[in-house]
Automatic annotation (TrEMBL):
One Pfam family hit: LolA_1st_nematode
Name of the protein in its database record: Uncharacterized protein
Transmembrane segments: 530-560
InterPro entries referenced in this protein's UniProt entry, alphabetically: DUF7959, LolA-like_dom_1st, LolA-like_dom_2nd
Domain DUF7959: 408-524
Organism of provenance: Diploscapter pachys
UniProt domain LolA-like: residue ranges: 6-198, 204-360
Alphabetical UniProt keywords: Membrane, Transmembrane, Transmembrane helix
C-alpha cells in the first residue's frame, strides 16, 4: 500500500485568505488525511473508505458525514467539469492533467521564468467556456518543472506540477467579464511517496464526532470483581473488592480522594456494607470508625426504597451515555481492542477499550487532553476472602475500653476439636455461627465473635462474645435496626432455645451443633468480674486463638483451665 504525501500553500484570491495544506493519500484516494490551517483555524478531514470525518480543532468539534468534501475553494460545478470528487489534492491534480489532455492550452513565454520550490517553472494556460449557460467559464494555469528536471523517484512523472491556479467566471469569457467568481492558487512545496506507518486511519485519541450511529456496549454485567485499577496518568493504584450479591464493596488506594468511591478519607481501607447500612474505615492495624452509610459516594444510588449498591460498571463510568464505535486498536500484547467513545455530561470525553465483553481500560479527556487512563486488572476472585473481610468488620462493633459492657457466654460443641475449626477457617466458622444466631434473635451477625477453647477430646467449648447494640443509625438499606435485640435479650433468647434442645447449623455444608443446656456465663457467676472483654482484649485473644491453632497443628499440646479469665490468659502469652 503506497502513500502520497503532498503539502503546500493554498491562497484564495477572492477572500484574500491563505492557509497551509498537508495531505496524505492511501490507495489512490480510497483513504486520506487532509489538514488546512492558518493562525485562526485548524481543520482536518479524514476519509476512510466511505466514511469522512471533519475535525475542527479551532472549536474542538468533529462531524461525521459521508458526503462531506474538502473546501479548497473550488465549487462543485468546477469539480463536475473536471470530473473530480475534490476530496483530496491528488484527485484534483489528476483531473487537471486529464483536463489538459482534452483542452487546447498555451505556453506562456516569459523573460524571467517563475521559480517554485527552487525549480524553474513552465507556464501553461487554458481558457474554456461552459457548454451550457449555467456552466462556468474556466481559467486554468499550471506551472510544471519541464523535462530537464529529473524527478526524485521513478514513481513520479517527469513533469512535476509546481503550482495550480483555477479561476471560475460566470457565463462566458468576454471583454467585460474579467472578474472571477472564484480564484484559488495552490503552490506545492512537497511531493513524496512513502510506506505508511499505520495500515489504518484513526481519529485522534479521545475525539468524538457528531452524526455517528450510537451503539450498545458489548460489556457483560459484573456481579463480583476483585482486582486493581491503575491510573497511568495519575500514577495511582486502587484495589477493589465488589460483590453485588453480598451487598458489599471495599476499596484501598494510594489516591486521595478514593477514586472508586470518590470519597475523601485518610483511612487505609474503606468498606461499604449495603446489607447492614454502614461505612467502616480502617487504619493499617485496626478499625477507625463505623458510621452511617450515606448517598454521597459514587457507589450509592438512591430510590424511593432507600440506598442501593450501583452496578459495577456504573461506578466506573456513566453507562447511559451515547457511545459510538471507532477504529479498533492493539494492546502491547497484540490483542485487538474495540474502541468506544462518548461525551460525558461535563463535556469531557469517555473512551472505553473493550476486549470481547470485558472492560480493558477507561480514558478520560478534557479539551483533548488526557486526564485519566485507568487500566482494569482483574485478580482471581478466590484470592479474596469475604469471610475474612467480615471478620474484620466485627472489630468495629467491639467497645474500645473494658468499662464498656460486653456479654460473653460459653457453649459446647460436641464431637468437635480445634482442628475441625481451623480446617474450615476461623473466619468462615465465625460467619456461619453468627448467621445461625441471627435465626434465634434479632441481632446483626457482625455483633457476634467466637473463640474456641479445648474442653476435652470429645468436645470443644466456644466462647461467644456478643457486642452491645450500636447507637449509630444505619443507612436506609432495609436493616431491622429498631427491633434489634440488646445483648442481654439475645442471650436470654439463646438460653431459652438451648433449653429446648440442640441447635444445629452448617459450616461449608458440614453439620455442627451446640449442645443443649450448656450455656454458661463467662466468667462464671461466682467470680467477681461480670464485665466482658475490651476490644483490645478480644483482638489479642484472636491472635492467641490463631497461635493456639498453629501450635496444635504442629503437634503441641496446651491445656486451658476454662475457669480462668481468658482475657488475662491471652495477655500472658505476650509477657
Amino acid at each position: 500500500m503506497s502513500l502520497i504525501w503532498v503539502s503546500g500553500v493554498l491562497t484564495d484570491w477572492i477572500t484574500s485568505k491563505i492557509a497551509l495544506i498537508e495531505e496524505e493519500v492511501w490507495d489512490l484516494g480510497a483513504s486520506s488525511i487532509v489538514k488546512i490551517s492558518n493562525k485562526s483555524l485548524d481543520l482536518t478531514w479524514i476519509k476512510d473508505g466511505e466514511d469522512t470525518y471533519f475535525i475542527n480543532k479551532t472549536d474542538n468539534t468533529c462531524a461525521y458525514n459521508k458526503t462531506l468534501q474538502v473546501p479548497y475553494g473550488i465549487s462543485d460545478r468546477v469539480l463536475k467539469i473536471f470530473n473530480s470528487t475534490g476530496q483530496n489534492l491528488a484527485s484534483i491534480v489528476k483531473s487537471v492533467i486529464d483536463f489538459s489532455n482534452s483542452t487546447t492550452g498555451y505556453y506562456i513565454i516569459e523573460k524571467q521564468p517563475p521559480v517554485v520550490a527552487g525549480m524553474e517553472g513552465i507556464h501553461w494556460l487554458a481558457c474554456k467556456n461552459g457548454s451550457k449557460p449555467e456552466d462556468p467559464a474556466l481559467l486554468v494555469e499550471v506551472l510544471f518543472s519541464g523535462d530537464q528536471i529529473e524527478p526524485p523517484t521513478l514513481n513520479i512523472s517527469k513533469q512535476i506540477m509546481l503550482s495550480l491556479r483555477i479561476g471560475e467566471f460566470n457565463g462566458s469569457f468576454t471583454e467585460n467579464n474579467t472578474s472571477p467568481y472564484s480564484y484559488i492558487h495552490i503552490e506545492f512545496d512537497k511531493l513524496a511517496l512513502a510506506k505508511p506507518k499505520e495500515t489504518q486511519i484513526k481519529l485522534p485519541p479521545g475525539q468524538v464526532c457528531s452524526g455517528l450511529k450510537n451503539t450498545t456496549l458489548p460489556l457483560k454485567q459484573v456481579d463480583e470483581f476483585y482486582g486493581v485499577i491503575e491510573d497511568e496518568v495519575k500514577l495511582t493504584s486502587t484495589k477493589v473488592f465488589y460483590s453485588s450479591s453480598n451487598g458489599i464493596v471495599a476499596e484501598s488506594s494510594s489516591a486521595k480522594p478514593y477514586p472508586f468511591f470518590n470519597e475523601a478519607s485518610d483511612a487505609a481501607q474503606i468498606v461499604h456494607s449495603f446489607k447492614y447500612g454502614y461505612e467502616f474505615t480502617f487504619s493499617q492495624t485496626n478499625c477507625q470508625e463505623m458510621k452511617t452509610l450515606l448517598n454521597t459516594t459514587n457507589d450509592v444510588v438512591t430510590d424511593d426504597k432507600g440506598l442501593h449498591l450501583k452496578p459495577f460498571l456504573q461506578i466506573l463510568f456513566n453507562t447511559n451515555l451515547n457511545f459510538s464505535k471507532f477504529t479498533p486498536t492493539k494492546t502491547e500484547g497484540n490483542i485487538t481492542v474495540d474502541v468506544y467513545r462518548a461525551t460525558d455530561l461535563d463535556n469531557s470525553t469517555v473512551e472505553l477499550f473493550i476486549i470481547k465483553d470485558e472492560l480493558y481500560s477507561i480514558r478520560r479527556y478534557v479539551n483533548n487532553e488526557l486526564k485519566s487512563d485507568q487500566r482494569i486488572i482483574p485478580l482471581p476472585i478466590n484470592g479474596f476472602s469475604l469471610s475474612q473481610l467480615e471478620f474484620g468488620l466485627r472489630s468495629c462493633y467491639q467497645p474500645p475500653t473494658i468499662s464498656s459492657h460486653v456479654d460473653t457466654v460459653m457453649v459446647e460443641l460436641p464431637g468437635k476439636s480445634l482442628a475441625d475449626v481451623f480446617s474450615v477457617g476461623l473466619e468462615t466458622f465465625t460467619n456461619a455461627f453468627a448467621q445461625a444466631m441471627n435465626q434465634i434473635g434479632q441481632i446483626s451477625p457482625l455483633r457476634i465473635s467466637v473463640f474456641p477453647v479445648i474442653k476435652s477430646s470429645e468436645a470443644l467449648d466456644l466462647v461467644v462474645n456478643v457486642a452491645e447494640k450500636t447507637q449509630i443509625q444505619p443507612g436506609s438499606v432495609g436493616a431491622n435496626f429498631t427491633t434489634e435485640d440488646v445483648s442481654s435479650a439475645f442471650i436470654e433468647a439463646l438460653n431459652k432455645t438451648l433449653a429446648k434442645g440442640d441447635i444445629e447449623f452448617k459450616v461449608n455444608q458440614q453439620s455442627w451443633k451446640i449442645s443443649s443446656n450448656t450455656l454458661t456465663r463467662f466468667p462464671e457467676a461466682h467470680t467477681k468480674c461480670w464485665y466482658g472483654f475490651s476490644g483490645g482484649s478480644m483482638f489479642v485473644l484472636g491472635i492467641f486463638a490463631f497461635m493456639l491453632g498453629i501450635a496444635l497443628g504442629a503437634g503441641g499440646i496446651l491445656f486451658i483451665n476454662r475457669r480462668k479469665q481468658i482475657s488475662t490468659l491471652a495477655y500472658q502469652v505476650f509477657e
